[in-house]
């Protein structure tokens, strides 16, 4: 019988809130055993954001360990001795003070892949500063791509893109480090900075800015949101020349049909005029009518779905719900993946009896006591 891709990988997760837990959730979705080590009060997200906690801790085991006590540190070291990966999100210096830093744990387990996932990384002027997704988006220039925010008002992208970027780079790095370990026999330390992850995701935009200037970033003819007759929003993405030609034919945009508008660069010069005309055209019919016509002409278009609508989409392959419980599948079909309908653990649900050591059994989501 085929095993899941990470069936033999054992992960110890010391992180809280979103970036670290989402990274270890992805590893768990690929079949890794994930043991969530929580302080006695539990992950802050349990009280602050219970829905988020439930979403990014599905199928994990919860073990309560007080790292401020010598017994707690002993129990944690015992746990890490059997682990392949450890993830923490402390500010620089905290793990060392607690005695759970890479230098200490790698002596116990030289094969350990140790991840520090923080906002600004372990080095640099900002390394010791606190932060959240919005701060990292600002520091990396991502928010600079958007119109200036109104002072004092909430601002962001809705989705915590920075936190998730850090999570993804953590996962990619872990998988690469595990591959390297097959040849070297040793683990390694991974310093994952959320701001650096976002900076790397900025490379397509920065390349455009260096070549063409920042102004053209907001001039995308045939690309954007347009209000329809019923007040609903149409999302159109007719950027390429062949899509534009089809749109011109469908809407009879004769003034934009000549050789002067044959290429995307040429159309950028007429961005405002094109936008005004499209705004006018799409107000003439309701969204459903436009979608039927645009999709029949093979032009990229769809409506603006709400998050709630995605949960109930009959064609949804990744996301769903069971009452108030989220169902999430790994978005790439693979052999022998764990079931999607898994729940987050209760605090300390898998903590052994006091005084016992902890054994992490490979390939299963179990923690046992051993004397």
TrEMBL record:
The lineage of its organism: Bacteria, Pseudomonadati, Pseudomonadota, Alphaproteobacteria, Hyphomicrobiales. Pfam families: CoA_transf_3. PANTHER family: FATTY ACYL-COA TRANSFERASE RV3272-RELATED, SUCCINYL-COA--D-CITRAMALATE COA-TRANSFERASE. GO terms for molecular function: transferase activity. This is CoA transferase. Keywords: Transferase.
